[in-house]
Amino acid sequence: MRTSTPGGSAAHQTVSRTQWDEELVPTPNGRTAVPDPACSVEIALHAIAGRWTTLVLRNVMHGPASFSELSNSLPALSDKVLTDRLTHLVNEGIVERGIHSGFPSRTVYRLTPRGEALRPLLIELYRTGQRLREARDRDPIDL
């Protein structure tokens, strides 16, 4: 917003945001001026953060899988990064790690109810990405 000063020059005035898009930000925890770990969007983004996380999560969504099954399904992913991604997902309560008895014992990763709640987010991210790619392909922006 621009206002005039007595000398006729323009000055800038900061306008505080008092109205929010209720669909986009339905609760006060998202109405922040800086990133806040209590914001629902920040919580969801943190859950899927990190390169490869969405692909590991996608593969676990197909059903329980061992480390080697996950590793084989993503051959370009190093074991170290796979371990890091699975540790993150386990620590967030999105995936649980179980050990099946027998010889040799087998570690299996499966989705938790919290992880299942991410399914609609991943589906919508995929659809949005498709629309953005199609728009970019139709009208590329020269940088």
Name the descriptors.
143 residues; 43% helix; alpha+beta; 6 helices
In short:
By secondary structure, this protein is α+β, with helices and mostly antiparallel strands. It has helices at 40-47, 53-61, 67-73, 79-91, 113-116, 119-138, and strands spanning 2-4, 10-12, 65-66, 95-100, 106-111. Strand 4 (95-100) and strand 5 form a beta hairpin.
Please specify the SSE layout and strand pairing.
Elements (H helix, E strand, L loop, with lengths): L1 E3 L5 E3 L27 H8 L5 H9 L3 E2 H7 L5 H13 L3 E6 L5 E6 L1 H4 L2 H20 L5
Antiparallel strand pairs: 1-2, 3-5, 4-5
The rounded distance between the terminal residues' Cα atoms is: 30 Å
Describe the sheet with the most strands: 3 strands, antiparallel
Lateral arrangement of strands in the main beta sheet: 3-5-4
The radius of gyration is 22 Å
Helical proportion?
Answer: 40-55%
H/E topology pattern: EEHHEHHEEHH
Mean pLDDT: 86
Strand tally: 5
Individual helix count: 6
Instruction: Flag low-confidence runs.
Output: 1-5, 9-15
How much of the sequence lies in strands comes to: 5-15%
Instruction: Name the structural class.
Output: alpha+beta
Shape summary:
globular
Could you explain the architecture of this structure?
The chain is an alpha+beta fold and 143 residues long. The protein has helices spanning 40-47, 53-61, 67-73, 79-91, 113-116, 119-138; strands at 2-4, 10-12, 65-66, 95-100, 106-111. The strands form two sheets. A three-stranded antiparallel sheet has the order 3-5-4. A hairpin with a 5-residue loop joins strand 4 (95-100) and strand 5. The chain is globular, with a radius of gyration of 22 Å. Mean pLDDT is 86; it is low at 1-5 and 9-15.
